[in-house]
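This is your field. Have a critical look at the following sequence-structure pair:

***
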Amino acid sequence: MVLTRVLSDDEAAELYDVLNSWGDFPADHFYDALVERAHNVLDIGCGTGGMLHHARDRGHRGRLVGLDPDRAALARAGRRTDVEWREGTAATLTAEAEFDLATMTGHAFQCLTTDEDLRDSLTAIRRALRPGGRFAFETRHPQAKAWEDWTPAHPVTVSQPRRLRLWHEVESVVGGVVTFTETAADPEGTVRRVDRAALRFLGPAELDEFLAAAGFVVEERFGDWESGPLTEQSREIVTIASAVRPPQDRAAQAAPAPKP
């Protein structure tokens, strides 16, 4: 939800590109290795397409598909035509057994804030994968309470596409869902854009329940981008899940057990 819009959506997409230039972060190298080994790749929440652009630059010859609901971001991604671009969310996926790998990078998985959206999205992702296909994503570990650093005291300054200072302010933390604003302002303090967003923080056990119901089994789990173990100090929950069976039928789940 945009509360103040002086920066256009196109400018915001360009700013996203600057802040999230692919190849600058340890997570990028982790995903690059997975994409390199997969022939048909679906990137959910692809944004401006950095990961898939980079894959093509590195010589990936398979099918690459990017999915995102943000038209401005997709327009920027679509400047390259050697990748397929689709508008939509995970829950709106209609693909069936088309991909070897699905990814959600940049903590995009945390945008699934309700149980219904999680179930619908994971079911659609599972359906889009071939048997044995893999779904790779990461979430911030709730134990680290990353949102406590989302304050005006921790701003980020950029010089492109214009000089701006960005900061976050948390509005609420309820049931694992953190609602916050992101403000972009000129150096002199003039506010150019304020966006409100919400992210859900799930622990490993909760994640695994949703994954299992959708037909996934956790194949690998890490606590950092160097494939270190998940510990009490981990700030990330990095998951690779395998599509091993069809999703559970919701009606069957909800139905009472038969009487003996």
Observations:
- Residues 115-128 form the longest helix (14 residues).
- The longest strand covers residues 129-140.
- The chain is about 25% helix and 35% strand.
- The mean pLDDT is 92.
